[in-house]
Amino acid sequence: MSLKNSWAAIENKSLDTRLLQALREDRAREDVTSKALIPANESGEAEFIARAKGVLCGIAVAERCFRLFDPKARFDRCCDDGAALKRGMVIARVRGRLRSLFAVERVALNLLCRLSGIATLTSQFVNQASPYGVRIFDTRKTTPLWRDLEKYAVAAGGGCNHRQDLASACFIKDNHVYACGGIQAALERLFSMKKVPRPVIVEARTKKEVLIASKYPVDLILLDNMSPRRIRSISMCIDKGIELEISGGVNLGNVREYAQAGASRISIGALTHSVKVLDIALDYRS
Hints:
By secondary structure, this protein is of the alpha/beta class. The protein has helices spanning 3-11, 15-25, 32-37, 59-69, 98-129, 147-156, 174-180, 183-191, 207-213, 228-235, 255-259, 270-273, and strands at residues 43-50, 54-55, 74-77, 84-85, 90-97, 135-137, 170-172, 200-204, 220-224, 244-247, 265-267, 280-285. It is built from 12 helices and 12 strands.
């Protein structure tokens, strides 16, 4: 799915409701400081400025925050999501009543900085892995209620989206294996069904589990917390038609080594659960 289509899908998922809830949480219409200092009809302009190098994501979200709060606000983008940012670049300009600009500022920046941080980190992993034909995927380790935006940010950084939710794939993980009495028992139970839910993904922690899973018509085997050396050994022992994914223990320092281990994809929870926000400011222009 293209970035444009991904954004269209988000707009259809009650985004406005969530943004309005975020503004209510901040009591944006009860800003006592601005009401005390700023005349009600005084207007002005502010610029979104990149304070660090990175990848932009969330500018449409920021714009939507201002337009929901004050439909008369004017928002002019200078960059689109996915754009490479340099320190000092002007990302967008917003003009309107100063009370509105100051009231929305923090909610808009919180989302913009976090989403841009996710896109930036994703792009760093993608740049390391893509020369080896390996794709970078996210996980479900996302902020509750904001998963669609965070996965959109991964896509803006050049990454790929793993399953969106529990209904999107049959993903047999370690707890399922324990509950069924072993990986073979779990797979036997699954493939005895008249209609097997697809795609089927199996998490394997040992070479033995990989070999067992490879005997079934699974779509993907996830190699959990294995070293590059072990992954390389396993990839040489199974059918080349079985897609392998690496997960666990991958960071920017070792992703190149993992990318050369024989799998076609790497999933990284840190893209969304441990991201550093990108430094972006909203500066008032008198």
